[in-house]
């Protein structure tokens, strides 16, 4: 496929985040943006050509050398601009187009005007993406998160470590010895704002979020060993009935008991009429009384999706505190919280101060786009939430560095940022250890800090 | 500041300079004039210091804005110091002050020399002296951007801090990635240099001289291999070829790129180029007329040739001479002095106050006046087809004022520390700050900088660097805030 030149329209949250990531990964990025303030703040941050101007003026496209572009990403905050940009891009002969379209009336399979009418290859709807992600997380029982890898045999299980967890304050080596009845591998640890790809001598501390890779069949075993029980019925409380909150309620209301707290009276009435099976409550979702009256004690999952980052984080912390203090369950059942955090700087922190899951629309939209771009280059991609690491599938090329020695001897090359987690042999995914010797043509699952993706790829070339 | 990262980039720079010394070394070996050993020792020193520095800190690559300024300023000083070694080892310029001045003058593309007898130098050293122009013209920090694998944001900081060609104060980057831009700029630059060298060679100049003069022309620098500069040959072909290439070197380098890409639209939009051409034509013709009227020249072709050569040479801050303009009529000399203050186009290999600064300031002046008459008038200032925002205008005015301050303060300092008259002193500062080379009076075209005191030489070296890096990269070092936190 070979995408190298990328044209981004719109330097808002998603545009800037994407541009930064794409430039870092070595793509050549050109951006069209009309707001000079956004430009001047971005100019020092990214090594890209930024054109000041309106994307609806063709002169900007010419200045951007649109005819040499391989991919268009239209992510302004206006659907119409993004859709027309895609048509313009088509005329310039840009082969692939990605556009952010929020309105369900355009750009989707059943819409009046669908993707093909606008020549869009991928429609991005950040709110929809995040709502689906939240719904998916709620549907997974007590697990903090389970991420599929490859064709789904292998999973990554994300687990928050509390002080009395059997793996707290032990090194990776000790943990491996203690739980030797099934194979697993701790592939990443999120601690404060750092992401660690752990080596044998690293210690797991309370409050870490650890990502454990293992075979899908062993998840219940792992949960048993770690003292986590599956929960059955879910009661969900959502604070904030905005686009995301309402959509989550819509997605989940058939299978779960949902309470949605919205502070705006008119909006609450609208929601109440459109969401048939959801209990819509009018009130301030950050008020403890409202929460408790609304039935926080009986809630299993608390989701904060207001428009304010700080409100979401604080109310989740508050909810978590109340749920765990009053919800004294002999089986040690724990309430779970999910916060929508729009500022990525908070995100890494949010996952360590005790929030179970913090999600960011920008990042999930950007991940979706990057996944699309990489389809040709990588076999599959999974993103670990809230950490700066990615799970990728790489195929070892003949005579590539990685095939030269067994893994134990390649330690120095992998540095501290790359972990070869598993390989697929005879159609079965096996976890690697020091003695594994990767052979040419084998599909390998690699966990890599985002900044080292390039190096990781190099090892396999 | 991130000193390990700074050390690694500076180490890389030293290694690069060590490698470039292989060219003059080859030259010394061909001519066998006994200067080869001085290059061998210098290469050993440069790589011996550079390699371990780079190697031990190469994993650090995060550079802040401040690191960028620091690397650029100290990089230029360090490189000039190392480059002075061959002259000192060989003994042709025994004093470090003199050798450093000569090299700083070379790298900053000033072309002011302290050598009274240039022709006495062996060919290897002459080649090295001219080669500093080649390296300095495009900026060697830009080379590190090309060589170093991933500087990330750091590369942008360095590129900006060095005031390299290819940047225009209004408008956007011409290529998305700094590295890409750096490679293109170097390719265009080397292409022009080689083209000129071939032309001069074709018209009968010895290959060695043709190369050295080409190094000094496109970079708009001005070291010649002859005592009487290009006047030595007294050949109209050489003069006109040099005029054309000085003019090309003074053009915004982005325009060369647009020409190669046949992007006429972008070329047409560049108003600075029109002003530049206008300035050049006006001063050339006016000076020719004055020379004819004053009786200095008798034939029209000669008047045009000598006037154009001198005007373009000074306007593009090159500093080659074919005639002693101090023998010209006073009015013609005054024109040359005025032309000193014009430094060709922004984003070229020249220094000093650029045509675009004058364009912005004069349009701003016009708008200010018009607003007095019609207070409600909205008068956008258009430069190169775009509207110049207020910060751009402020920067242009500020840059102009700083330059004028530097000249008058500098002139005063020079008269205090040296025993030159005030006009020669001021002229010396103008000549170094704008990276021209020759000036008036004691440092006129028939004189050198040899007689200036050591303190004066250091002060002028400082001015050359400040001018080459367009003031602020050096001046920020004097802000206490730069060194804190």
This entry's quaternary arrangement is: heterodimer
CA radius of gyration of chain A is 23 Å
Can you name the CATH architecture of the largest domain in chain A?
A: 3-Layer(aba) Sandwich
Uncertain parts of chain B: none
Our count of domains of chain A comes out at 4
What does this protein structure show overall?
The complex is a heterodimer of chains A (461) and B (485). Chain A has 461 residues and is an alpha/beta fold. Chain A has 4 domains: 5-124, NAD(P)-binding Rossmann-like Domain (Rossmann fold); 146-225, Regulator of K+ conductance, C-terminal domain (Alpha-Beta Plaits, 2-Layer Sandwich); 235-363, 3-Layer(aba) Sandwich (Rossmann fold), CATH 3.40.50.720; 388-459, 2-Layer Sandwich (Alpha-Beta Plaits), CATH 3.30.70. Chain A is 32% helix and 26% strand. In chain A, the strands form 5 sheets. Chain A has a 6-stranded parallel beta sheet, sandwiched between helices. In chain A, strand 22 and strand 23 form a beta hairpin. In chain B, helix 1 (3-20) runs parallel beside helix 4 (65-90) and helix 9 packs antiparallel against helix 11 (236-249). Chain B is globular. The model of chain B has no long low-confidence stretch (mean pLDDT 89). The longest helix of chain B is centred in the last third of the chain and has 28 residues, at 390-417. In chain B, a hairpin with a 2-residue loop joins strand 1 (382-383) and strand 2.
């Amino acid at each position: 496929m070979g995408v190298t030149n990328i044209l981004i329209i719109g330097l808002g949250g998603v545009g800037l985040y994407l541009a930064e990531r794409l430039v870092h990964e070595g793509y050549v990025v050109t951006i069209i943006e009309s707001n000079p303030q956004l430009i001047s703040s971005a100019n020092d941050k990214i090594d890209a050509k930024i054109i000041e101007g309106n994307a609806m003026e063709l002169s900007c496209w010419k200045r951007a050398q649109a005819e040499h572009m391989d991919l268009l990403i239209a992510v302004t905050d206006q659907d119409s601009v993004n859709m027309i940009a895609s048509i313009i891009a088509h005329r310039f002969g840009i082969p692939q187009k990605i556009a952010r379209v929020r309105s369900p009336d355009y750009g989707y399979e059943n819409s009046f005007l669908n993707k093909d009418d606008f020549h869009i290859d991928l429609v991005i709807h950040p709110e929809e993406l995040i709502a689906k992600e939240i719904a998916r997380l709620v549907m997974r029982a007590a697990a903090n998160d389970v991420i599929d890898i490859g064709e789904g045999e292998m999973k990554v299980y994300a687990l928050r470590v509390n002080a009395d967890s059997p793996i707290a304050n032990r090194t990776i080596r000790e943990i491996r010895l203690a739980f030797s009845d099934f194979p697993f591998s701790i592939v990443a640890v999120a601690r404060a704002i750092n992401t660690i790809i752990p080596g044998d001598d690293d210690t797991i501390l309370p409050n870490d979020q650890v990502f454990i890779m293992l075979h899908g069949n062993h998840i219940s075993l792992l949960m048993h060993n770690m003292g986590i029980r599956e929960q059955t019925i879910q009661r969900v409380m959502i604070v904030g009935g905005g686009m995301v909150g309402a959509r989550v309620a819509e997605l989940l209301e058939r299978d779960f008991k949902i309470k949605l707290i919205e502070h705006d009276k008119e909006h609450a009435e609208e929601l109440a009429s459109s969401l048939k099976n959801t209990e819509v409550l009018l009130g301030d979702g950050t008020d403890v009384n409202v929460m408790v009256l609304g039935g926080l004690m009986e809630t299993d999952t608390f989701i904060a999706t207001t428009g304010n980052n700080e409100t979401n984080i604080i109310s989740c912390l508050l909810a978590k505190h109340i749920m765990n203090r009053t919800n004294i369950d002999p089986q040690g059942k724990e309430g779970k919280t999910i916060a929508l955090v729009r500022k990525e700087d908070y995100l890494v922190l949010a996952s360590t101060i005790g929030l179970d899951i913090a999600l960011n629309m920008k990042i999930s939209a950007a991940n979706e786009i990057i996944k699309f771009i990489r389809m040709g280059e990588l076999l599959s991609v999974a993103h670990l939430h809230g950490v700066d690491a990615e799970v990728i599938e790489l195929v070892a090329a003949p005579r590539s560095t990685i095939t030269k020695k067994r893994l134990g001897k390649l330690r120095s090359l992998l540095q501290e940022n790359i972990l070869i987690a598993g390989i697929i042999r005879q159609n079965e995914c096996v976890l690697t250890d020091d003695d594994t010797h990767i052979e040419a043509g084998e599909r390998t699952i690699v966990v890599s800090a985002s900044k080292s993706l390039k190096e990781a790829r190099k090892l396999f070339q | 500041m991130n000193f390990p990262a700074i050390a690694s980039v500076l180490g890389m720079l030293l290694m690069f300079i060590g490698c470039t010394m292989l060219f003059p070394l080859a030259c010394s070996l061909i001519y066998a004039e006994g200067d080869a050993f001085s290059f061998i020792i210098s290469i050993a020193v440069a790589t011996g210091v550079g390699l371990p520095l780079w190697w031990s800190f190469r994993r650090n690559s995060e550079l802040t804005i401040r690191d960028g300024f620091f690397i650029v300023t100290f990089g230029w000083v360090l490189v000039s110091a190392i480059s002075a070694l061959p002259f000192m080892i060989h003994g042709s310029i025994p004093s470090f002050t003199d050798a450093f001045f000569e090299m700083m003058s070379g790298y900053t593309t000033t072309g002011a020399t302290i050598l009274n007898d240039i022709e006495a130098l062996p060919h290897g050293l002459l080649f090295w002296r001219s080669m500093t122009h080649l390296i300095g013209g495009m900026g060697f920090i830009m080379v590190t951007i090309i060589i170093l694998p991933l500087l990330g944001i750091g590369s942008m900081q360095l590129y900006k801090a060095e005031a390299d060609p290819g940047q225009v104060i209004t408008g956007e980057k011409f290529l998305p990635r700094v590295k890409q831009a750096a490679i293109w700029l170097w390719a265009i630059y080397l292409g022009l240099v080689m083209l000129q060298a071939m032309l001069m060679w074709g018209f009968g100049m010895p290959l060695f001289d043709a190369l050295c003069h080409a190094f000094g022309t496109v970079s708009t620098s001005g070291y010649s291999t002859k005592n009487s500069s290009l006047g030595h040959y007294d050949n109209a072909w050489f003069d006109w070829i040099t005029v054309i290439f000085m003019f090309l070197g003074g053009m915004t380098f982005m325009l060369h790129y647009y020409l190669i890409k046949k992007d006429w639209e972008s070329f047409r939009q560049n108003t600075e180029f029109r002003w530049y051409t206008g300035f050049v034509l006006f001063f050339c013709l006016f000076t020719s007329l004055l020379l004819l009227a004053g009786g200095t020249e008798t034939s029209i072709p000669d008047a045009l040739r000598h006037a154009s050569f001198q005007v373009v040479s000074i306007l593009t801050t090159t500093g080659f001479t074919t005639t002693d303009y101090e023998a010209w009529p006073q009015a013609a000399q005054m024109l040359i002095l005025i032309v000193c203050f014009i430094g060709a186009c922004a984003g070229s290999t020249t220094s000093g106050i650029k045509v675009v600064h004058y364009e912005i300031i004069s349009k701003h002046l016009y708008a200010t006046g018009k607003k007095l008459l019609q207070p409600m008038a909205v008068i956008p200032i258009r430069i190169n087809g775009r509207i110049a925002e207020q910060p751009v205008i402020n920067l242009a005015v500020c840059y102009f004022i700083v330059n004028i301050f530097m000249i008058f303060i500098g002139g005063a300092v020079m008269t205090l520390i040296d025993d030159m008259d005030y006009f020669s002193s001021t002229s010396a500062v103008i000549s170094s700050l704008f990276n021209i080379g020759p000036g008036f009076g004691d440092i006129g075209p028939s004189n050198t900088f040899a007689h200036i005191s050591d303190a004066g030489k250091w002060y002028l070296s400082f001015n050359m660097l400040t001018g080459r890096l367009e003031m602020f990269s050096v001046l920020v070092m004097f802000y206490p805030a730069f060194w804190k936190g």
